Amino acid sequence: MKKMTRRRFVAAGISALAAGQALLSGGAKTASAGQAATGGSSSADKKLSGTRLILLGTAGGPRPNKVRSSPAQVILVNSVPYVVDCGSGVSRQLVMAGVPLLKLRRVFLTHHHSDHNADYGNLLLLAWASGLKTPVDTYGPPPIEKMTKLYFELNAYDIDTRIADEQRVPLVPLVTVHEFDKEGLVMRDENVKVTATLVHHPPVVPAFAFRFDAADRSIVISGDTTPSDNLIKLAQGADVLVHEVIHKPSLAKLIARIPNAEKLLEHIVASHTTHDDVGKVAKAAGVKTLVLSHIVPSDDTSVTDEMWIEGARAHFDGKVIVGKDLMEI
Ligand SMILES: [Zn+2]
Ligand SMILES: [Zn+2]
Question: Which residue(s) pair with 221 in the sheet?
Fold first, then answer.
């Protein structure tokens, strides 16, 4: 395991990279296993190159529900998957999206709330159990290094058994952890540059947002945050901003349904962004498309798409999409 080098975030450089990019396809559709690019036809070939964003889980909060899966998304650049956050069920959602687990390459965590990291270790283990034998790099704030180490210890019996019984390559040496606690350049490879900024999500410190700049598209994932000037800077001119959101008028109903949640309302309001403020953030950042995700309340279907959108629309003229699990944008 190694520490990454830290560099200061330079917004200007990133904006320059985003300039002149191809336009979005515009629409959003639901990905499915049937869309897995297996080669052959020209449409399948098309999916192997360029940048795709698939929302894997669009709920906010750690409580499993029947409507939305826990927070996670994958950005595919030239068919290489970059997974951002690992809420419960992320491995299965990747399979449902047609992304082969054995192709897992890079995993990013925005912060250490369990709705974002509950299946971090499980993703590594289950990808390996699915045939992964190539390196995986993971990125996130402390204590990701310790968590990874302890996870492998916790699961040593299964890992050792499968190595002996199924002749699998050892898992632990495949994984390199990059732990960081400062904003700046996180990673750059042949496909994409990833930059982080600090966001405001008390009491979790540090909590990050990420920006992915590929040749054809720029995508920003807010992580969990109140309206953030740092995020607005990071997201300047981006093609797509995936932003967390709460519907404040519906929170009282949510709290009433959750046992022992007296303090929860206070936390939600103090550390998240309302469906009204999210439009102001998108406007200030000058993004083309705003995607609402990490939706709270996540399983209250009486809050319609139109209700989610109306607050943002009051401030933002661009395209607004209410995220759904397995939607491709
Ligand atoms: Zn969250
Ligand atoms: Zn959080």
Answer: 210, 242
